[in-house]
């Protein structure tokens, strides 16, 4: 019997109580119980990609740390992109990353990649971790993420250099990181569409991805940065990449501007990708893409993957609560329609539960 057939999936016809209970059960089922080829790793990027473009004032460091804590302790996320050692002149919202690193709680089995654009970013991270170890505190992370782009226009706008210059810079960062015992994840932005150059040739995106793998990245995340790609466009990039990489060495990083984020994720997972980047509450945006909305939300990714018979190990109900909480903390509407629906069903189930309790009391009286 297939896992899909064995998995009880929430039906829209179930009442709210049953639906909420079922979602909870599914969310709590561990990754270990799933067949290896049905496991999908969620990289929740909300503390970095989700918050880096927040325009409504600096998000409090304590809020960022609480977001990381809740993602790991309550939602069971096993990979959390926690911050960025980039220039605060370019991305002020990430300026407190050293404080986030110092203050964040860590948990065994969870990885915390930090974005690093250049040698200076890596030196800062290594120095801070060295200071922590000297003070008797265990280091917080053993992973960084480096990033470049598939178009010259985006690369220059994002990192002030050409693609070749960025690759030169990143090769040095990757080799120093490896010497220091850090794993390196890679990103290629605008793999299908660029806000400056339009449609991007999938071979171009694949060529840059290959170079990141060759410099030692264990995985390359393919970014539909502006959220404009269709599934076939993302699959075209994936097909080019699988000429030299296994699908498991690639990740889906989809934004949802045009509403195709989830379709793109599902298409890539069905094609063999086993790592998906997402952000609770659909947090995020892209400063270089007018009207760009956030990352695809963790809640809809986890829900859709569950329905398709995949396991993420993420507690859906907890993710929905965290997505609601962080959006409220930012004074924003919850950007996850799946999250809103899950919370509405939970609220209805609770009300019904209370009502049933009252009815029983009344009937006993
Ligand atoms: C790459 C640079 C630094 C080049 O920026 P630059 O201005 O060319 O760099 P520079 O070397 O001339 O330095 C300028 C100033 O920045 C400082 N500086 C330089 N480096 C650092 C550093 N690491 N940490 C802290 N400070 C730094 C440096 O010390 C100097 O300070 P000053 O002397 O003027 O006081 C800059 O362009 C930058 O930080 N860019 C990052 C932009 C960014 O973070 N974008 C968002 C992340 S990428 C993304 O979101 C896409 C992704 C990953 O999610 C995937 C997807 O969706 O596609």
TrEMBL record:
An example Gene Ontology molecular-function term: hydroxymethylglutaryl-CoA lyase activity
Q: Which PROSITE patterns match?
A: PYR_CT
EC class (word): lyase
**Lyase among the record's keywords?**
yes
Classification via Pfam families = HMGL-like
The record's listing under PANTHER family reads: HYDROXYMETHYLGLUTARYL-COA LYASE
Q: Which residues form the Pyruvate carboxyltransferase domain?
A: 40-320
Alphabetical list of NCBIfam families matching this protein: PRK05692.1
Listed CDD domains: DRE_TIM_HMGL
Q: Which reaction does it catalyse?
A: (3S)-3-hydroxy-3-methylglutaryl-CoA = acetoacetate + acetyl-CoA
One Gene Ontology term of the biological-process aspect is: ketone body biosynthetic process
Taxonomically, what lineage is the organism?
A: Eukaryota, Fungi, Dikarya, Basidiomycota, Ustilaginomycotina
Record keywords = Lyase, Metal-binding
Family, as annotated: Belongs to the HMG-CoA lyase family.
EC no. given is 4.1.3.4
Q: In which pathway does it act?
A: Metabolic intermediate metabolism; (S)-3-hydroxy-3-methylglutaryl-CoA degradation; acetoacetate from (S)-3-hydroxy-3-methylglutaryl-CoA: step 1/1
Report what the protein is called: hydroxymethylglutaryl-CoA lyase
């Amino acid at each position: 019997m297939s896992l899909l057939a064995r998995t009880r999936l929430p039906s829209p016809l179930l009442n709210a109580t049953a639906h909420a209970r079922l979602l909870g059960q599914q969310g709590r089922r561990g990754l270990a119980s799933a067949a290896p080829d049905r496991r999908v790793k969620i990289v929740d990027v909300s503390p970095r990609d989700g918050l880096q473009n927040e325009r409504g004032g600096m998000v409090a460091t304590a809020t960022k740390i609480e977001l990381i804590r809740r993602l790991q302790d309550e939602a069971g996320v096993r990979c959390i992109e926690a911050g960025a050692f980039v220039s605060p002149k370019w991305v002020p919202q990430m300026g407190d990353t050293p404080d986030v690193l110092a203050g964040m709680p860590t948990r065994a089995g969870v990885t915390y990649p930090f974005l690093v654009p250049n040698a200076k970013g890596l030196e800062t991270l290594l120095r801070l971790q060295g200071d922590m170890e000297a003070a008797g505190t265990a280091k917080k992370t053993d992973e960084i993420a480096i990033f470049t782009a598939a178009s010259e226009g985006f690369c220059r706008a994002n990192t002030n250099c050409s693609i070749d210059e960025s690759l030169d810079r990143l090769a040095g960062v990757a080799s120093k990181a490896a010497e220091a015992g850090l794993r390196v994840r890679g990103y290629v932005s605008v793999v299908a569409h660029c806000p400056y150059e339009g449609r991007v040739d999938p071979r171009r995106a694949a060529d840059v991805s290959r170079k990141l793998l060759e410099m030692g990245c264990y995985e390359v995340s393919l970014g539909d940065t502006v959220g404009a790609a269709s599934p076939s466009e993302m699959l075209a990039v994936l097909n080019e990449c699988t000429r030299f990489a296994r699908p498991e060495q690639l990740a889906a990083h989809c934004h949802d501007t045009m509403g195709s984020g989830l379709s793109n994720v599902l298409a890539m997972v069905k094609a063999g990708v086993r790592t998906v980047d997402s952000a609770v509450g659909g947090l995020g945006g892209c400063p270089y893409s007018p009207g760009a909305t956030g990352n695809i939300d963790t809640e809809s990714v986890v829900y859709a993957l569950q329905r398709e018979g995949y396991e993420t190990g993420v507690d859906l109900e907890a993710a929905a609560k965290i997505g609601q909480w962080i959006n409220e903390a930012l004074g924003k509407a919850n950007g996850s329609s799946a999250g809103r629906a899950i919370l509405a069903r939970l609220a209805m189930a609770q009300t019904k539960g209370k009502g049933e309790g009252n009815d029983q009391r009344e009937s006993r009286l």
